[in-house]
Amino acid sequence: MPEGVLVEYSNGFWYGFNYSSQNQEIPIPNNAKVFLGQKTIKPADVVIWKE
Q: In which residue ranges of the chain is pLDDT below 50?
């Protein structure tokens, strides 16, 4: 996982957080359903998906 990126699993959903100062690509599987955000997230942004 890139520095400044945190990926957590809770209650059936995956959460990706970008704590860095640059855009980051989160490793989301192609078959996942993204509910909020997208694979590449800006600094201080979040993405939520379910596999």
A: none
Q: What pLDDT shows up at residue 13? A: 98
Determine the Cα–Cα distance for residues 21 and 3; give it in Å rounded to an integer. 10
* Longest alpha-carbon distance in the chain: 28
Structure tokens at 32: 């996942």
Q: CA 25, 16, 23, 40 torsion: positive or negative?
A: positive
Element (H, E) at 39: none
d(CA 16, CA 18): 7
